[in-house]
Amino acid sequence: MTTHNVTLIPGDGTGPEISAAVQKVLEATGVKIAWEVVEAGADVVEKYGTPLPDNVLASIRKNKVALKGPLTTPIGTGFRSVNVALRKELDLYACLRPCKSYKGVRSRYQNIDLVVVRENTEDLYAGVEYAAGSKEATEIIGWAKGKIFPDAAISIKPISRTGAERIARFAFDYAVAHKRRKVTAVTKANIMKYTDGLFFEVSREVAKQYPGIEYEERLIDNMCMQLVQKPELYDVILLPNLYGDILSDLCAGLIGGLGIAPGANHGKDIALFEAVHGSAPKYKGMNKVNPTAVLLSGVLMLEHLGEKAAAQKLEAAIAVVIAEGRDVTYDLKPRPDDPTAAGTREMGEAIIRKLRG
Ligand code: NAD
């Protein structure tokens, strides 16, 4: 049996407790994984002087596959997002977020089966931002000839043909490989004619090379309403970075919350798997939050490693525990203050029992 070398970044906030539970469950699948555990995030700044030490990137570059717990990003001040830095440094240009209903999860919707494909490296996330009053901001305001207040801070939104083409191709290749019927590209191209307009133009060109997959376009505002009213109309959804980020949470809401929404970031030959949710710091150390989103990211990782049978078995075990509704965390109980809610660790142990059957 092959042993897979995988980098594990436990994360911060509730990340370490989730990752510990997930590591045990993945071990119980019988797949041989040699974990290389490396630290990143807010909790290691004091130790390493940076939230993203060099050995983290080196480990992922070597192993080519990583599983990551959530990492905190301070708002407004402090360091930039380590999550964004990892995606940029490793050129993980495609963010894949399947949103699927599981029986037993309370939600306003049933039978949701959507896949969000989000561009991960460009757009307003490129990190090209200038403070109000800075030399750069003042220069750009000059070019804009009266369209921008002189005291504005500026964020630049780059969308390139290169970036749009590789993410559109990823979405269509995914649709073909997973037998999906349709790709819907989403932007605000009526307002941002050059940037979002280019994203549509390139997606349309790529679509022509996949005649077996239906292609359509929607504007982001309309798409938000459509997804809330008629989610069954959609299948694979292709978006630039910022809209993709926002719509991912909307789609997570459709399936019953962030606790069960997994994700994967793919580059040319590196893949990093992580939940959609963040570090939920208010629950840190309480053994309280749901490990499912990271576990389902683990299912995506097992598929990527070619361990399809183990991936299916694990997903089925998770689905049974959720459907039974007994050994589940607070967010999957009828009321969040339900005294019978399982902890992170206990929910993991229940899934292990199902795996062992
Ligand atoms: P969050 O996703 O951490 O939490 C928002 C709320 O969602 C929580 O208070 C909780 O009620 C619920 N929730 C989240 N995860 C859950 C889980 N596993 N089980 C049950 N309930 C869960 O979002 P936030 O509070 O906006 O962000 C906290 C920090 O995480 C921020 O610093 C943010 O930048 C960071 N973040 C990191 C990632 C990542 O690591 N990829 C993603 C999003 C946010």
Question: Any descriptors?
Answer:
single chain; binds nicotinamide-adenine-dinucleotide; 357 residues; alpha/beta
Describe the structure.
The radius of gyration is 21 Å and the shape is globular. With 357 residues, the chain is an alpha/beta fold. Helix 7 (195-208) links the parallel strand 8 and strand 9 (214-219). The strands form 2 sheets. A 10-stranded mixed β-sheet has the order 2-1-3-12-11-4-5-10-8-9, with helices on both faces. A two-stranded antiparallel ribbon has the order 6-7. Helix content is 40%, strand content 16%. Nicotinamide-adenine-dinucleotide binds next to loops.
List the helices and strands and how they pair.
Elements: E1 3-9, H1 15-28, E2 32-37, H2 45-48, H3 54-63, E3 65-68, H4 82-89, E4 94-100, E5 113-119, E6 129-130, H5 135-143, E7 154-155, H6 161-177, E8 182-187, H7 195-208, E9 214-219, H8 220-229, E10 236-239, H9 241-254, E11 264-266, E12 271-274, H10 292-304, H11 308-324, H12 344-356
Helix pairs in contact: 1-10, 1-12, 6-7, 8-9, 10-11, 11-12
The structure holds nicotinamide-adenine-dinucleotide.
Briefly, what is this?
The protein is of the alpha/beta class and 357 residues long. The chain has helices at 15-28, 45-48, 54-63, 82-89, 135-143, 161-177, 195-208, 220-229, 241-254, 292-304, 308-324, 344-356; strands at residues 3-9, 32-37, 65-68, 94-100, 113-119, 129-130, 154-155, 182-187, 214-219, 236-239, 264-266, 271-274. The chain is 40% helix and 16% strand.
